[in-house]
Specification:
The chain has 234 residues and is α/β, with parallel strands linked by helices. Helix 1 packs parallel to helix 6. The chain has 8 helices and 5 strands, in the order βαβααβαβαβααα. The structure holds flavin mononucleotide. The site of flavin mononucleotide has 20 residues, from helix 1 and strand 4.
Length: 234
């Protein structure tokens, strides 16, 4: 299974190791493409709105495109972030901001509707769920129909500090999650995604776009009519 991993940190701590446990059960090493933030995208959104007119006009387009291309070519996307002050890391948030044209509000990518994703977070005490939610809301709005998450308190600053019993529990959990993910082929697009898509189609029909480019994008794909990105055309 081809996997794209987006790490919301440069270092290989608990969050990284848990994600690798999962990925290594699902894919050969050569099938796994990893990105580390901020190493592979050392930028934050400038709020220039150039991307709304044309994604290639973003000053950081090339670095973003490398990540987007890897995501497009993968069957499974794995996002990792430790809990930093009850949310995802700033660099993970920066990536999500820089990809905001992927939202169904703007110009969702048709290929997103066929992806599976997992969001993994660790925390010393509490808050892994909050970090996960900070990532998951973008993935839902990008149109990813199948999203699993795994958050856990490790009571440690790094992987070496995680107790052996905790590591054994994590290993079991990853085996279970890998089995689940291995059983799912192309995911079914559920009611929630269909509902958001229909609402956004209505919005673009009504011309409530951030730019006329958005309506043109939806119209060209037939999404203002009956065509849907998860349905085969023709
Ligand atoms: C900047 C920063 C903020 C953190 N904020 C919290 C927090 O709000 N609550 C908490 O329980 N742990 C917090 N932690 C601890 C980490 O979430 C925890 O050690 C995590 O397992 C680290 O994952 P890693 O080994 O992948 O880096 C914070 C750590 C850092 C460096």
């Amino acid at each position: 299974m081809k996997i794209a991993m987006i790490h919301g940190q440069n270092h290989m701590g608990s969050t990284y190791h848990i994600a690798r446990l999962l990925a290594d059960k699902l894919a050969e090493k050569e099938e796994i493409r990893e990105f580390f933030l901020p190493r592979d995208l050392p930028h934050v959104c400038l709020g220039c709105y150039q991307c709304i007119e044309d994604d290639a006009k973003c000053p950081y387009y090339q670095e973003k495109q490398a990540i987007a291309t890897a995501m497009e070519g993968a069957e499974l996307l794995i996002f990792t972030t430790p809990n930093y002050c009850m949310g995802p890391t700033a660099q993970m948030k920066a990536l999500l901001d820089l990809l905001f044209t992927f939202w169904m509000t703007h110009r969702p990518r048709a290929w997103m509707f066929g992806k599976k994703a997992v969001v993994i977070s660790t925390t010393a005490g509490m808050g892994a769920g909050r970090a996960i939610r900070g990532v998951k809301s973008s993935l839902v709005n990008w149109g990813i129909p199948y999203i699993k998450s795994y958050g856990t308190g490790v009571q440690a600053k790094n992987w070496a500090g995680v107790k052996a019993e905790k590591k054994a529990k994590i290993e079991k959990d990853m085996e279970k999650l890998a089995r689940k993910l291995g059983r799912v082929g192309r995911p079914r697009v559920g009611l929630k995604t269909r509902f958001i898509f229909a609402m956004m189609a209505n919005m673009h029909r009504a011309g409530w776009d951030s730019s006329p480019v958005e309506r043109q994008y939806w119209e060209a794909r037939g999404w203002l009519g009956k065509a849907r990105p998860w349905k085969r055309q023709g």
